[in-house]
Design goal:
- The chain is mostly helical.
- The chain has 22 helices and no strands.
- Helix 1 (5-20) packs across helix 2 (42-56) and helix 5 runs antiparallel to helix 6 (103-116).
- It is globular and about 70 Å long.
């Protein structure tokens, strides 16, 4: 192949760029390989061009066509780059890559098509749902959800895959579909799907928790799987009511930290949204959990405590953390005191603003703005 000298020099420069940018795009940028004449090899040239196009988010059809037809070893990277570029003109190339002999290429192409979003006929991705490679099928489901394709249409196409495979392909990305569509499918998956994927179904159901599914969500609070108990608590924070505070309180003594943390956040959401009032019988538990040995539980209890202020005991504990806790604890305690309109919040913000830690000073500025917005 005859090469333009200017193009070769440009590609050589890009090869240097590729080596220098390895920390930015390690999957594309590799040390350039040179031929006997000191020029970059054809593969290295292609890789350098992919780096440039990805970095600039620029679609260049000639380069794409060349890589598509002459360098099969670069097709996974080509599909990945086209997804990053995000140009609609890349769709035909990606649809061609969706039929490549290499499963890795098909996976990258399916994912990249999802990044392009709506605006095209979904037939190629619908066909990919029954790909021999299960991961390609799962990525096609995710791409179709991103494109806004109806869940019922996806389910219908998945009927063609072998018995036992529809759920593993569908459930990982089920949460990406519309909430009204998710409920019936997630409920069916909880009873008919593989046990190891029940948490996926519960996450999809509870993430935005439609009212019609609340009965099932409440039932999941007693599930043997801590992941499901945690997702159920989260769901009640999204769509529950004041009666759910008693249900959430039962999880505060859970053996696993996840359900405890999600219950604390759910209770805070119910109270801050005006759906419930802060119950007094939570106070001793909040105080205990603010001193829990697990940092995640401790932080969640601090954040939730802001909804119970102004309670003297909780206020005092939060003030202690705001002055003497770790940086993370100081940030969270400061935010909780501000949201709860604690009378000492302004003084603590002033102290944090003089901290030697830039992050804490930034949080102090945010808290000061929040305090001013609340008119405290």
């Amino acid at each position: 192949m005859r090469r333009c000298p200017i193009l070769v020099l440009s590609l050589a420069a890009l090869g240097v760029l590729a080596a220098g940018c390895a920390g930015t795009a390690p999957d594309v940028a590799r040390a350039p390989e040179t031929s006997r004449g000191g020029l970059l090899s054809e593969e290295a040239e292609g890789r350098a061009f992919l780096l440039m196009l990805s970095d600039r988010r620029f679609y260049e059809p000639f380069t794409v066509r060349r890589l598509l037809t002459t360098l099969p070893e670069l097709r996974p990277e080509l599909a990945r780059a086209l997804g990053r570029i995000g140009h609609p003109a890349a769709r035909p190339a990606l649809e061609a890559l969706l039929e490549d002999a290499q499963p890795e290429v098909r996976r990258e192409a399916a994912f990249a098509l999802g990044l392009l979003g709506a605006g095209a006929e979904p037939a190629p991705l619908l066909a990919a749902l029954s790909d021999p490679d299960p991961e390609v099928g799962a990525l096609a489901v995710e791409a179709l959800a991103r494109m806004g394709v109806a869940l019922a249409r996806v389910e219908a196409e998945l009927e063609a895959v072998p018995v036992g495979e529809p759920w593993p392909r569908l459930l990982p990305a089920l949460f990406r579909f519309q909430p009204a569509e998710i409920g019936p499918v997630a409920l069916r998956a909880l009873t008919e799907g593989p046990p190891e994927l029940r948490s996926r179904a519960a996450f999809a159901l509870c993430r935005r928790a439609p009212q019609a599914s609340l009965t099932t969500v409440r039932t999941l609070l007693a599930d043997a799987d801590p992941w499901l108990r945690g997702w159920a608590a989260r769901g009640l924070g999204v769509a529950g009511d004041r009666s759910d505070l008693e249900r959430l309180a039962a999880l505060l003594d859970d053996a696993s930290p996840g359900p405890v943390i999600q219950s604390l956040y759910a209770a805070r959401n119910l109270i801050s949204s005006g759906r419930a009032a802060p119950p007094a019988d939570w106070l001793p538990r909040l105080e205990r959990l603010m001193g829990d040995e697990q940092v995640g539980v401790r932080i969640a209890a601090m954040e939730a405590a802001g909804a119970w202020l102004r309670n003297p005991t909780l206020s005092e504990a939060l003030r202690h953390y705001a002055r003497q806790g770790s940086r993370w604890e100081r940030e969270v305690a400061l935010r909780a005191l501000t949201s709860g309109r604690d009378p000492v919040a302004a003084d603590l913000i002033a102290e944090a603003a003089r901290s030697s830690e830039p992050v804490l000073r930034a949080r102090a500025a945010e808290a000061a703005g929040d305090l001013g917005a609340r008119g405290v």
